[in-house]
Amino acid sequence: MTYDITIDGKQYRLDLNRAEGRWSCRLDGREVEVDAVLARPDVLSLRLGNLAYEVKCERVAGDMHLWVGSSRFAAVVRDPRSLRGRVRAVDDQGPRKLTAPMPGKIVRVLVSQGAGVEAGTGVLVVEAMKMQNEIKSPKKGTIQKILVSEGAAVNAGDVLAIVE
Amino acid sequence: MTYDITIDGKQYRLDLNRAEGRWSCRLDGREVEVDAVLARPDVLSLRLGNLAYEVKCERVAGDMHLWVGSSRFAAVVRDPRSLRGRVRAVDDQGPRKLTAPMPGKIVRVLVSQGAGVEAGTGVLVVEAMKMQNEIKSPKKGTIQKILVSEGAAVNAGDVLAIVE
Amino acid sequence: MFKKILIANRGEIAVRVIRACHEMGIAAVAVYSDVDRPALHVRKADEAYPIGAAAASESYLNIQKILDVAARSGADAVHPGYGFLSENAKFARACADAGIKFIGPTAAAMDAMGSKTRARQAVERAGVPFVPGTSRGLESFEQAEEVAGRIGYPVMLKAAAGGGGKGMRLVHGPEELKSSLEAARSEAERSFGDSEVYIEKAILNPRHIEMQVLADEHGNTVYLGERECSLQRRHQKVVEEAPSPIVDPDMRRRMGEVAVRVAQAAGYTNAGTVEFLVDQQKKFYFLEMNTRLQVEHPVTELVTGLDLVHLQIRIASGERLPFTQDDVVIRGHAIECRIYAEDPDNNYFPSPGKITLLLAPSGPGIRRDSGMYEGWTVPMDYDPLLAKLIGYGTDRDQAISRLTRALNEYFVGGIKTNISLFRRILSDPDFRAARLDTGFLDRLLKQKRAEAPADPKAIEVAVIAAGIFATLGAAAAGAGELAANGSANSGPSPASNWKIAAHKEATR
Amino acid sequence: MFKKILIANRGEIAVRVIRACHEMGIAAVAVYSDVDRPALHVRKADEAYPIGAAAASESYLNIQKILDVAARSGADAVHPGYGFLSENAKFARACADAGIKFIGPTAAAMDAMGSKTRARQAVERAGVPFVPGTSRGLESFEQAEEVAGRIGYPVMLKAAAGGGGKGMRLVHGPEELKSSLEAARSEAERSFGDSEVYIEKAILNPRHIEMQVLADEHGNTVYLGERECSLQRRHQKVVEEAPSPIVDPDMRRRMGEVAVRVAQAAGYTNAGTVEFLVDQQKKFYFLEMNTRLQVEHPVTELVTGLDLVHLQIRIASGERLPFTQDDVVIRGHAIECRIYAEDPDNNYFPSPGKITLLLAPSGPGIRRDSGMYEGWTVPMDYDPLLAKLIGYGTDRDQAISRLTRALNEYFVGGIKTNISLFRRILSDPDFRAARLDTGFLDRLLKQKRAEAPADPKAIEVAVIAAGIFATLGAAAAGAGELAANGSANSGPSPASNWKIAAHKEATR
Fold this sequence. Notes:
The complex is a heterotetramer, with 2 copies of chain A (164 residues) and 2 copies of chain C (508 residues).
Chain A: E1 2-7, E2 10-19, E3 22-27, E4 30-32, E5 34-40, E6 43-48, E7 51-60, E8 63-68, E9 71-78, E10 96-99, E11 104-109, E12 116-117, E13 122-128, E14 131-136, E15 141-146, E16 153-154, E17 159-163
Antiparallel strand pairs in A: 1-2, 1-9, 2-3, 3-4, 5-6, 6-7, 7-8, 8-9, 10-17, 11-13, 11-16, 12-15, 13-14, 15-17
Chain C: E1 4-7, H1 11-23, E2 27-32, H2 40-44, E3 47-50, H3 63-73, E4 77-79, H4 89-97, E5 101-102, H5 107-114, H6 116-125, H7 141-151, E6 155-159, E7 169-171, H8 174-192, E8 197-201, E9 207-215, E10 221-233, E11 236-242, H9 249-265, E12 270-278, E13 284-290, H10 297-304, H11 308-316, E14 333-340, E15 342-343, E16 349-350, E17 353-354, E18 357-359, E19 366-370, E20 377-378, E21 385-393, H12 396-409, E22 411-413, H13 419-426, H14 429-432, H15 440-446, H16 456-472, H17 483-488, H18 494-507
Parallel strand pairs in C: 1-2, 1-4, 2-3, 4-5
Antiparallel strand pairs in C: 6-7, 6-8, 9-10, 9-12, 10-11, 11-14, 12-13, 14-21, 15-16, 17-20, 18-22, 19-21
């Protein structure tokens, strides 16, 4: 398998093959001695040469994060031969969605549709676990749409409003 | 679903139905109020009325054991409408198999084929985890067959010899 | 001794009390709200009763429902834990009326310490030092002006019924006083239904140090040493330790004796905590008394070798304290981290959800009091405290190093936790040197986090691991959604609940 | 201080030492045999090196391979744990020759204490009481007859190189002496390659009590109190506690001073244990010295508040003991259970295999030192010790009750463990009353187990649970065979290994 893997904004080419229980691995063309055991689901005991690592994999809504010791890395894995997993370009100029960072309840809508906002202006307040959290506009612009109303229950990732 | 469940030599008839996430349950015709949540695979949080139990399920080679608190029960579950799971009659009179109680290595065969043995006579010695364990004849009789030789590696449940 | 105790709480503290009951041969009765049926305290209890909807007011705060369960189950005592009804004198009174022992102080003692002004009056009579200011609610702006002028600015305005930083205002000079007083009053009225506000001198960069006391019902009161609780975020404690690095035996004795005097002034019984502010000259001032078991009680247990919950139960059942003040010896050092379901990279937003992977630390010097388990969905309805990790060591350095080691072993997948915050705190040079005050954590969090460039070797490891996980595919993935759970569960899971609700909103 | 330590061991003790290294900021190097690649100590180490086949002689006992890894990794010290090479003077000497610090006593001290007769000679010179008998190997049957007649029957014959009950014979009278001597000699020759046998008076129903000592390399030696280790099965310790219920401060001081004298006579450094037999009059006799960290060291850590592995490392790096004898205070009570992979319902046969479900206890007063994890396959090649569960309490009763509670929370599915044995021991009236001796456990196990008729309610629960599990089907089942494991693993799993081997046997 060949993967293009992006971590911290940098892309790496990984060639990985498994035969008879052994991995062979090239990272950006350089051979790396790899020995991997899946200790538990999502927990890998990895040896690179003789250095030992316990790597944990976090999967939330299609995102993959890897914990190496106490460092956490977001990884995007693409198969260069397939279309699946192609990253869509993020358009910083266009409309931006405000999403709920956690499940909770909308306790206040602070601005009305059509209002102008600065970057950092509070748009809505979500309550979860006895705490109220202001969802702020990520950019200067106009509130194009408010998609929820006060009292609504929302899930993590739900779109709450759109700023353009 | 209707099950015939045998525990400690006694058979119970259990009628179990689930509708809209709720269980209804009759045990030997008597209605029992049951509320069950699978906390983790093989771990059930069970309420009978308001009494609470954590029940663990152990499955080894098709056998089911249930732990209720610190008591362990072997359960045989049969569907009375199917043939599957019918218990074969155990013939105490006929030939008896000696099986390995754990994986290990045969370090000694103590009697030869055709020899007469008493109940409790040592037949073979299996070694595992630095311990040697004598496998004894369960009955008085003759060693019909020794199926392993010294030095052999065996798995739990492997038949080692037959006494008749 | 009691035969059966009802635990009117949830989460790690309910598990803590159930364990104590089992250790003492007492049956434990759990109560749970609709979203808490799969909670750990229900799994561990001997009996479990549903008490209503997720909202605490419908369940854990509903006195009548809890007393009904006590009656139905035949419980002879109630342990309230902390939070919820634990400091509710009405509940303590209702228990007494129903002939059920409330494991805690009497309603009268709770009343005496429940209002901050009443508590100040009581300790004033007992000759206990408190922060200079009024011990009664302010009657007028003129009175506030006069007192502030006398004790000197900056001053604090505080709500008598206050807590959690609400109804509190720091006033730097006379020109701010009027508007601050009005603001504090209206916030107090809104938050507690009581606009009473008093004034006290603002102590700059104080330490928050508290003293554990224990009183039996035969007149014996002892102190069990102090806890340093200066590490707070939004007036919530985050890290606590015992002993305090600045308290020496003489200061401990003086603070302890004052704390005992406070308890005795209130006619206090059972476990309680007297909180002090300590200024930079190590002068200490009474702040308030917490009339319950504290979240951070384990650090005291580790350095004294005592079990506070066992002792609470024994005291409530009428036993005498089994030791005297002279028997209490502080040995070693203990530090507690409160593990919360919140996202340190996103302004500490709460992070409820399903725990897909849980690796829990253990080993020498590590105590873990937890209410979570792998596969459990953290509901969004309650305080986000998941567990407490406590490290003990021969000295403070060893406690820190053991705790750091254990934090590195701790992994909670599927939700966000504040575990990384503790690694940051424990490695901070000021924390290591014990230069602590209540502003410490806010200052630390404001610092531009030293963006240590990621170790290139760690990135290499992450890249290769990502590729291996991708190759292994679904077989290597953790629990994720436990298919059978929702179906075996008596109700829909909270997550699906939210989804349904959100969907309704979107389509109406 | 060392920069990197190689841990020449596996299982829970390797994990224990790795944790200590991490707490002290030292890199930890693991070694592993072919079947141990997925072991917990490999997961937790900073570096890990394969050292050969499963058989210990090919890997963990292979001095050259371990020294090679030390050289390749640049480790500056080796911690041997217990078992394997920990008491091998040749290994200690080879480490010294290679310029790598062996964390333990010198080879000379190990030699002095390694042979039981040599140890008896050394303590005899130091004026330490030992069990009456010879302190040298028996030269003839006539000498044996003479000594036995003088000290009086019953007597024990013991192999000088002995351990684990091998080469040991109890002789009730003169008529048994000759055959017993021959048997002991030939067993000693077979087991240890050394037929030297000595004689000592048999002490009936003794207690086995041992004293922990610690000596730095600057001449300071202290004792850290005793451990009661009378609960043994086949001469293997099963439950240990500190302090001993029969040792009072005066006896502790006397035993401790004797233990220090033994250590000093041997020129001992680092951690060691002096074992005593104690008769029914509480007279104690030197038995032997263990020149390593003991399995049961955690009970001493809990009652003294010290970390023995940290101290071992600090001593080996040349530091002085950071405290004196007067600073050592015993507080509270600690009891350890050794969790083995063995089947208590089937004559304690070992039970290797895959752990399909693991519920681990925690909470107040509970320490867990474990080498297992859910999904791991316990190999059949080594000692079956999986983990140690240690309970601490203000007093012995509380330690027992906390431990009992924790044992009830502990669940290991997929293999058999001896957890139920501890529940039985801890509830035994004689154990509760601390009426212990080395015959206790054998007597308990011989008792026809009181077949308490199963609680009908528990059976009802089991029947219903069985039906629910059957209905939920595979979705409710635990890990079982982890499909991806074998494939990600660098070699076949032990289980499939056996299957292949067994198949070969059957078809040839």
